[in-house]
Specification:
The chain folds into 2 domains: about 325 residues, no CATH class; about 90 residues. The longest helix has about 120 residues. The radius of gyration is 54 Å and the shape is elongated. It has a two-stranded antiparallel ribbon with strand order 1-2. α1 packs antiparallel against α8, α2 crosses α10 and α10 runs antiparallel to α11. A hairpin with a 5-residue loop joins β1 and β2. The protein is mostly helical. Keywords: Signal.
Length: about 475
């Protein structure tokens, strides 16, 4: 018994190491995917289903006629490239069902594995107590003893059995069974293990299908890439290639996650199996112990006595009856003898798991539709924001132009005003000049007239105030000149 537990611990340690290595490998794989995501600018899902669905929603919705009508792909000489792009687009679209199946199967499998982990956690303390009982049984009784007649006896009191130890054990057994009643593994634990094993079969088949899709996608991506220098000249070819690369990365993450659950399953189910087996063995030994009431201990050298212990043995049998029967029946159903019975139970599990996966894929389709609506709302919001920004820029540009126009008009009005003022000043200046000329002309005419009169009078011998008139003319000219300058 002790040797078995030592080996079991070794197995557990090895599984823990494998788990750590798997997580490390997956982490490195996801880093590589993240790098590809950065290079291709394509949304890739790890655990983010929303991002994964957005990757699928970004798949171009080109028709074959759209590709034939493309400026570059539609040319007669590019028919092979056009067909390659179309085949890649078809493969991308058909991959969605495998993404659903892979993700749903992985999620359902993980649920079953986590149910096994919960069973192990819940029963951990109880299992330690039942292990203590089996150890104590080993101290007072021998297992699988062959008597003198060659008959195999499952349990027999040791020759060295000590009375106190035996009586303490009989008192401890009902106490432990009562304390562990609610935490001990039940038939459900047995069925959870079977469910995990059957779900593993389904999910590995699903993963194999995803692997086939991945190989096909990679071939299609490589096919487009062979037309180097040509496919880059078509926006449609570039979009299809990038979509295929994004879906390829998403599906690779799905397979990585399935592998992760595989390691988790091996660890959890192995531990759950060991735990169930421990309880089955404990129940069997306790049942054998409870039947020692009729054993003959006269030949044993120990001090153990079974006489008078029937009430205690009866209590043990009563406490064992229901849990032992339930677990034995569950094990019999799971490990059914006969190919037909095994197939029947496997079909039951398969149907249950398949139905769960179907329900999950239906839910995923609704989630996809919700994400599509959310994406459409975001895009509409972005479109409206861009439209509002454009309208605001146009208004700002219009206001700027109006400000510039008003400034130009003000400047033109100011220039016109200044021109009018200048013109008025020049007209006023000309009027003054004209007035001065006319005044001067008038003075000259008057002076000439006076000079003529003076000459006439002089001829007649009469005197004239010529100097007075001359001085008066000079004064008038000076005043007029000042007026003109001002």
């Amino acid at each position: 018994m002790t040797t078995m537990f030592v080996r079991l611990r070794h197995v557990m340690c090895l599984l823990v190491v494998l788990q750590c290595l798997s997580v490390l490998v997956l982490a490195q794989g996801e880093t590589g995917v993240a790098t590809e995501d950065a290079n291709n600018n394509i949304g890739v899902a790890v655990l983010n289903k929303k991002k994964a669905w957005e990757t699928y929603l970004d798949i171009p919705n080109f028709t074959k006629e759209d590709l034939e009508g493309d400026d570059f792909l539609g040319k007669p000489g590019n028919k092979e490239l056009r067909n390659t792009v179309w085949n890649a687009l078809v493969a991308v679209r058909e991959s969605e069902v495998h993404f659903k199946n892979g993700t749903a199967c992985m999620t359902e499998w993980k649920k079953v594995v986590e149910a096994n982990e919960k069973t192990v956690r819940d029963a951990e303390d109880a299992t330690k107590k039942i292990e203590g009982l089996t150890k104590s049984i080993g101290e007072v009784a021998d297992r699988d003893v062959v008597d003198e007649s060659g008959r195999k006896i499952p349990l027999r009191l040791k020759n060295t059995c000590e009375k106190k130890k035996f009586e303490d054990l009989l008192q401890e057994i009902p106490k432990v069974l009562g304390e562990t009643k609610e935490k001990a593994p039940t038939a459900e634990a047995v069925f959870n293990i079977a469910d995990a094993n059957q779900t593993e079969v389904l999910c590995k088949a699903t993963r194999s299908n995803v692997d086939d899709v991945l190989r096909n996608l990679e071939q299609k991506i490589g096919g487009i890439a062979t037309f180097v220098g040509d496919y880059e000249r078509s926006d449609k070819a570039m979009l299809v290639k990038r979509a295929a690369e994004g879906i390829n990365a998403t599906l690779r993450n799905v397979t990585a996650l399935i592998d992760n659950v595989t390691v988790q399953d091996r660890f959890a189910v192995s531990k759950a199996n060991a735990q169930v087996e421990e309880w089955r063995m404990a129940y069997a030994e306790l049942a054998f112990l409870a039947e020692l009431g009729n054993a003959d201990t006269s030949e044993t050298k120990g001090t153990c006595e079974v006489k008078g212990k029937e009430p205690q043995f009866g209590e043990i049998r009563k406490l064992l009856q229901t849990p032992k029967k339930e677990m034995d029946d569950a094990v019999k159903k799971v490990e059914a003898v006969g190919e037909d019975k095994k197939k029947k139970y496997a079909a039951e599990v398969n149907k249950r798991v398949t139905e769960a996966i179907k329900n999950m894929t239906t839910g995923m389709e609704r989630e996809k539709e919700r994400i599509a609506r959310e994406k459409a709302r975001r895009e509409e919001g972005a479109r409206r924001a861009a439209e509002e920004a454009r309208r605001k820029r146009e208004e700002e540009e219009r206001a700027r132009k109006e400000t510039v126009q008003r400034a130009k008009e003000n400047e033109a009005r100011e220039a016109e005003k200044m021109a009018r003022e200048k013109e008025a000043r020049e007209a006023e200046k000309k009027a003054r000049e004209k007035e001065v000329r006319e005044a001067a002309e008038k003075i000259r005419e008057e002076e000439a007239k006076r000079a003529a009169e003076k000459a006439k009078k002089k001829k007649d011998g009469s005197s004239s105030p010529a100097l007075v008139h001359s001085s008066l003319i000079l004064l008038v000219l000076s005043v007029l000149g000042c007026t003109l300058v001002c």
